[in-house]
Amino acid sequence: MPDESIIKPIYQKIAIDIANRIANDEFSPGDRIHGRSTLASEYNVSPETIRRSMILLRDMDIVDVSQGSGITVKSKNRVFQFIEKFKVIDSISSIKSDILSMLNRRKEMDKELNESIDKLINYSERFKNTNPFAPLEIKITSEAHLIGKTISETKFWQETGATLIGIRRTNKIILSPGPYAIFSPDDVIIVIGDENSYDRIISFLYG
């Protein structure tokens, strides 16, 4: 998924631009900024868009908007707070965009991983008598010490050297269970390992 750019509404862009013009001393406190019609023509937008821009600046006490006097600069100090506020908003939006992008990539990777594991299990079941690398299926009884614990808590891979690729539970297969999946009695764990994996797993479960 391509990275998303942060798109601000045009009235926000205009408000930020005017704030920067005040910060750069183009306008000073007490100066009267052009009226809405003039600003609308300058920025090539409607007067309503300018009105919304001025509301943002007015709410931060940067300008004063009155019927007779038009738009007057009130404070330069508040300008920097206003600009910083939108920097923070941009930063948060950027982080949010990055997180959404990563979540989408993770979703795609999880999908591909599950599809591959599913193919491996199906293939191994069809050719289990001729495939030396077929996954092992081991049923967990209530005597196993890891009942009620998560995969992460038991350090399954570190203790057995085998990779747990699925859990068969009540006729359903949980593919690529995460570290917080909890072992339950009568689970059938589906693992891949070397020729000594079975003995190590049994020893780990009940030794």
Concise synopsis of the structure shown:
By secondary structure, the chain is α+β, with helices and mostly antiparallel strands.
Describe this structure in words.
- By secondary structure, the protein is an alpha+beta fold.
- Among the domains are: about 10-80, Arc Repressor Mutant, subunit A (Orthogonal Bundle); about 135-205, Regulator of K+ conductance, C-terminal domain (Alpha-Beta Plaits, 2-Layer Sandwich), CATH 3.30.70.
- About 50% of the residues lie in helices and about 15% in strands.
- The protein has 7 helices and 7 strands, in the order αβααββαβααβββα.
- It has helices at about 10-25, 35-45, 45-60, 75-125, 150-155, 155-160, 195-205; strands spanning about 30-35, 65, 70-75, 135-140, 165-170, 170-175, 190.
- The chain has a 4-stranded antiparallel sheet with strand order 4-7-5-6, with helices on both faces. Strands 1-3-2 form a 3-stranded antiparallel sheet.
- α1 packs across α4 (about 75-125) and α2 packs across α3 (about 45-60).
- The radius of gyration is 32 Å and the shape is rod-shaped.
- The two termini are about 50 Å apart.
Key traits:
single chain, 207 residues, alpha+beta, Arc Repressor Mutant, subunit A, Alpha-Beta Plaits, four-stranded antiparallel beta sheet, three-stranded antiparallel beta sheet, 14% strand, rod-shaped
CATH class of the domain at 10-81, please? Mainly Alpha
Beta-strand content = 5-15%
Instruction: List unreliable stretches of 5+ residues.
Output: 1-5
Taking the alpha carbons of the first and last residues, their distance comes to 48 Å
Characterize the main sheet: 4 strands, antiparallel
CATH architectural category of the domain at 10-81: Orthogonal Bundle
- Within the CATH hierarchy, at the fold level, what is the topology of the domain at 10-81? Arc Repressor Mutant, subunit A
Assign the CATH superfamily of the domain at 10-81: Winged helix-like DNA-binding domain superfamily/Winged helix DNA-binding domain
Q: Helix proportion of residues, in percent?
A: 40-55%
